[in-house]
User: Which sequence fits this backbone?
């Protein structure tokens, strides 16, 4: 048998465990992670399907319808294979609940394999008559003009200028609704460290240090005007959590901490990076979520514009 030097080998191993909620999947994955040689591991990253029956874990390379003639919504997804995608799949189910049984939600994704996962999750919820998915790119939408009453985009086209192609498929009088993560305070007691994290490439994304001020996501109103939308509105919603954290909130906040500032080591001092790793490591005695007085929050901002009648 030929010996392989793993230090010189690129490995991407993904582990998927299937089972009912609270069956011990997370504990198994955590033990696998802790038993992995430290040379081959970074941050523990896991995420679950909306029904909680399947948990995914990046182990070695851890970077992390129609009803009658009325169509209601198109949901534009972001990148594949991320916890954010699972979050947006939940949003699709919530949007279907919001529009009710007479409405229909259409989800769009560029990756057919993820459309399969989304379709299976929808079938499991018994909502295939109210939710459908279509393969496509929001730069070239596979829909006729004036198809949808409104569009909901979460963490996607809010990070790039909306185009006439997106507004083309909205009916006159319909709206474009762009939602995205807009701020956070997640490391209570460490304001200087959190400020440094916010100033990193990951912290500023999708804004870049060389970007023009008008391209900042918080200035999305100018982008809505540029594509001819009117009756502009902005709302910001906050999610606050405090100790004691339930098991569900604890898991969700752990995922947020692991996702929020990836690949920041080159931009922090050694001392700051080591402190950051200790604060977000569940195995560390300094794990921030274990503080008896933990409080944190994050916000989502929603920018809305209507197409003229």
Assistant:
């Amino acid at each position: 048998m030929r010996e392989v030097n793993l230090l010189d080998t690129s490995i991407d191993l993904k582990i998927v465990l299937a089972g009912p909620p609270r069956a011990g999947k997370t504990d198994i994955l955590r033990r696998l992670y802790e038993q992995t040689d430290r040379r081959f591991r970074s941050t523990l990253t896991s995420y679950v399907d909306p029904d909680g029956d399947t948990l995914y874990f990046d182990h070695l390379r851890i970077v992390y319808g129609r009803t009658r003639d009325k169509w209601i919504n198109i949901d534009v997804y972001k990148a594949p294979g991320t916890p954010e995608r699972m979050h947006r799949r939940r949003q699709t189910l919530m949007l279907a609940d919001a529009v009710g049984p007479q409405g229909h939600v259409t989800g769009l994704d560029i990756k057919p394999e993820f459309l399969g996962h989304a379709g299976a999750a929808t079938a499991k919820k018994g909502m295939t008559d109210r939710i459908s998915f279509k393969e496509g790119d929001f730069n070239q939408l596979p829909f006729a003009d004036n198809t949808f009453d409104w569009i909901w985009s979460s963490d996607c086209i809010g990070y790039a200028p909306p185009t006439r192609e997106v507004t083309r498929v909205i009916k006159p009088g319909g709206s474009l609704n762009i939602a995205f993560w807009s701020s956070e305070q997640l490391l209570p007691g460490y304001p200087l460290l959190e400020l440094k994290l916010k100033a990193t490439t990951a912290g500023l994304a999708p804004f870049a240090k060389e970007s023009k001020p008008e391209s900042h996501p918080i200035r999305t109103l100018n982008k809505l005007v540029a594509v001819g939308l009117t009756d502009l509105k902005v709302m910001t919603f906050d999610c606050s959590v405090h100790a004691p954290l339930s098991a569900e909130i604890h898991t969700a906040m752990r995922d947020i901490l692991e996702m929020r500032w990836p690949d920041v080591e080159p931009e922090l001092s050694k001392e700051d990076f080591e402190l950051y790793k200790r604060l977000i490591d569940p195995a560390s005695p300094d794990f921030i979520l274990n503080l008896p007085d933990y409080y944190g929050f994050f916000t989502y901002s929603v920018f809305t514009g209507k197409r003229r009648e």
